[in-house]
Predict the structure.
Amino acid sequence: MKLQQNHFEIFGLPVAYEVDRQLLTKRYRELQQEFHPDRFAAKSDREQMLSMQYAAQINEANNTLKDPVARAQYLLQLFGVEIKPEQTTADGEFLMQQMILRERLEEVRDAANPEVELDELGSDAADLFRSQELAFSTGLKNRELEQAKSALLKMQFLAKLRRQIDALEEELLD
């Protein structure tokens, strides 16, 4: 393993949005075992340091590749497209759709059956997220990086909404 490898190279995966999650998990476990710092306890200081660097790089790569939004950001970064943290989508129709979804989220507590409403909202958000994943993947494959970037910005909105839905679900279950 080399410290200069990109996240996909570390796991022997093709550079693409679609990731074989089972293979990623398998390779992660193998690499963790191979480079775990405890295996280098009796080695030289340099080997111990390299082992810690490799282990950290393996963890970072795994965390990035298993998260769809982080993976999409990383892929765009590999293609030279930088996303600033404060950057958002300018798609007015999508933003209006987000406002409606957030209003639905706010109304869940007052619904006759909050669990059903939350499930429906979660399902709608998941469908929208999958459609943006497809748009991202298609844009990336066709090297239409602005399309991919636009889809990523929308994925970020939808991932945040998913976290809010999950938090409200936890709150309602308590």
